[in-house]
Amino acid sequence: MADIGVVIAHIFLFVSLYFEIFLLVTFLERRHEVGGSSEEPTLFPTVTVIVPCWNEVKTLARTVKSLLALEYPKEKLSIFIVDDGSKDGTWEAMQEFKDAPMVTLFRKKNGGKFTALNLGIEQATSEIVGCLDADSIVKPDALKRIIKHFEDPLISAVTPGIKINNPKNIIEHIQVAEYTFSAFIRKVFSFMGAIYITPGPFSFFRRDIFKTIGLYRHAHNTEDLEMALRLQKNNLRIVNAHDAHVYTNAPRTPRTLYKQRVRWIHGFLENAKDYRSLFFKRGHGDLSFFILPTAALSIFLALYFTGFALFNTVIFIINKSIEFSAVGFGLVAQVPHLDWFFLKTESIFIISMILVLLTTTLIVIGRYILDQRVTFSRDIVYFLLFYSFLAPFWLFTSVYRTTFAKKTSWR
Amino acid sequence: MRTLNAKKYIFVFFITFAIFATALYISSFASNKRIEEIKSIEDKIAVDILSSETQYSLLAESSCSDIGNPSLSEELNSLAEKLSYTEGKLGADNTEVLGLKRYYSLLEIKDYLLMKKVTEKCKTKTQVILYFYSNKGDCTECERMGYVLTFLRNEYPGLRVYAFDYNLDLSAVRTLRSMLKIENKLPAVVINDKTYYGFKSIEDVEEIMPGLKTLKETATSTSATTTKKN
Question: Which of A103, A286, A334, B60 is disulfide-compatible with A192, CB 3.0–4.6 A?
């Protein structure tokens, strides 16, 4: 039984290693595309940024001010702030911007984020439409960086480079490394034509694509994921503007992080079920045959390793309690032998260490992609130390909810 | 219409395979090195025992101070630790491990017999424990007893613990078992020719072997004297 477990662990380690090496090789092939600063756009199409709000009184002003400070021709930019039936005074807070020439305010009954976005899209007349979550802020040059990519007529959507806004505690610092890793992954997926999320913070679309593929839908509270999958299904290209920086507020407590991740992972699994026809389908390239299957597999793979680690931890605890019942802390107090003989050299351990090293490298590359500098920070240490203990909680709940058809909530 | 770059997939497969194979090779290389090290320690101990036996044969013509005390116990302890670690990693049924264990048991018996002869002839006092265990899953207390003996061996370096797998397929161990009339009620420890069955705590063993305390005091005073001289 234990031998089968070890064989499965080896297979899963091989898959994980293959995936990370594939990403690294893809990045190295196109590394010249992430160096230096981007050129200025030659055209400035009209743009609408929709800010859907639901009880965002605390963060809204900062978000809108960052939009007003965008380096973009003012006559070409519209900002739609949509109050989705807030109860905390968001509508009143929005009045601060009612006289700003670029800003239009909307108020509607609560219907969910996607309904607020759809209202904005329906009202927009610009060539490009995008959204910004009301808890995020953008760098002044972010929109220019996004728009540059729309000069290619084949591109339908552009995603940004997302960073964590002002991280303070350890939970936020873990997410800094995670988002940096995601920046690397998003860029490589962009190279592969395999982006399957157009995130809420600052993703942009050609407005006319909504006429072809329809508006946002209620999609298991992960509308940004569903929209990207729909674009992919219709063979519409999504790319990543890694230098278009948007800063988002990360969950600050384990509980809020857990809730957010359950929503994301459960949303991914449900949307993967809805878009199962995209799996292993000719004509959709890497996304269909590699990225989506690996993304789905990775959830189960992580759960397997959690079970494997848990099993070994239980065995370790049992052994230690037997030792303790026999000699107390006697053996611990005695001087340990420093001999190479007792070094861990099991293949699982060696390959896991290679994976940790490779993951660290990819995060460092992610930082290079985002900030054009190569640094190793404490965020990476926190991520490597704690993430694998946190993730199994939301992975398990998400799989459970998907299996037993339980729903998730936004907050 | 997007296509797959098959060449890249194959290329990455080979890189991954190469890294994976290297990791497996390093792991297997380290296991083989461990077994080689155990073999080399066993060979060294065998030579040392042979040397001691030869010295003992010459004892009639020389004094006890010339032969000294054959002190192989530390090397046997280190060997036991490494063998136990390897057994834990490769499994008790591994043929290499079984071979090493048989050889180790023979060395233990030889060392035990030689030590008995020397102590009788030279009238020295040695603290010895013979320990019989089973790792077939039929001895719930053997693991705890093993921890106690490991602790005592580390605590009292002069203590000699000879551990034998009760079920080991080796005629010498079977003979020793029947000589000492060890029943299959494990764990069993033999101290001063008396057999005790069941788990014995550190305190139990220290009570049965009052000489252990003296062993520690002697070691401490010898060490102190040596320090003073320096």
Answer: A286
To the nearest whole percent, how much of chain B has pLDDT over 70?
Answer: 85
* Arithmetic mean of pLDDT over chain B: 83
Contact A181, A359 (CB under 8 A): yes
Query: CA A14 to CA A18: how far, in whole Å?
Result: 6
Question: Average pLDDT for residues B16-22, to the nearest whole number?
Answer: 97
CB-based contact A21 B9, cutoff 8 Å: no
pLDDT band at A383 (very low <50, low <70, confident <90, very high): very high
Task: Give CA–CA dist A197/A272, Å, rounded.
Answer: 12
Place of tokens 């497969």: B13
Residues in a beta bridge with B164: B132
Decide: B158 and B92 in contact? Cβ < 8 Å. Answer: no
Q: What is the pLDDT of residue A327?
A: 86
Instruction: Indicate the residue of B19, B143, B148 with minimum beta-carbon distance to A354.
Output: B19
| Residue recorded with tokens 């760098």 | A139
CB A199 within 8 A of CB A162: yes
CB B160 within 8 A of CB B72: no
- Written as six digits, the tokens of A367 are 């930082």
Q: What is the pTM of this model?
A: 0.85
Helix axes A170-192, A378-403, angle to 10 degrees: 80
Residue among A21, A154, A339, A341 with most chain B CBs within 10 A, to mutate: A341
Which is it for strands A136-138 and A237-248: parallel, antiparallel or unpaired? Answer: antiparallel
What would the pLDDT profile of B61-96 be if each residue is shown by its tens digit?
A: 556 666 555 555 667 777 888 888 888 888 878 888
Find all residues with CB under 8 Å of B74, minimum gap 6, and list them.
B157
Structure confidence at residue B47 (pLDDT): 85
Half-sphere exposure of A348 (CA within 13 A, CB side): 14
pLDDT attached to residue B135: 83
Q: Which residues pair with B188 in a beta bridge?
A: B132, B197
Torsion of CA A298, A300, A302, A306, to 10 degrees: -170
Q: Which whole number is the average pLDDT over A82-104? A: 94
Domain borders along chain A are 1-34+152-411
> Is A21 at the interface with chain B, CB within 8 A?
yes
Strand A204-206 relative to strand B128-133, pairing = unpaired
Of B19, B26, B34, the CB nearest to A17: B19
Which residues on adjacent β-strands are paired with residue A51? A81
Structure tokens at B164: 């034998």
Query: What's the rounded mean pLDDT across residues A45-55?
Result: 96
Inter-chain residue contact B151 with A25, CB threshold 8 Å: no
CATH architecture of B127-215: 3-Layer(aba) Sandwich (3.40)
> Rounded to an integer, what distance in angstroms lies between the CA atom of residue A410 and that of residue A221?
7
At residue B160, the 3 state secondary structure works out as strand
What number of other Cβ atoms are within 10 A of residue B168's Cβ? 17
Query: Which of A61-75, A327-341, B152-166 comes out lowest in average pLDDT?
Result: A327-341
Q: Give, in order, the Cα–Cα distances in Å from A196 to each of A173, A272, A291, B53.
A: 25, 10, 9, 77
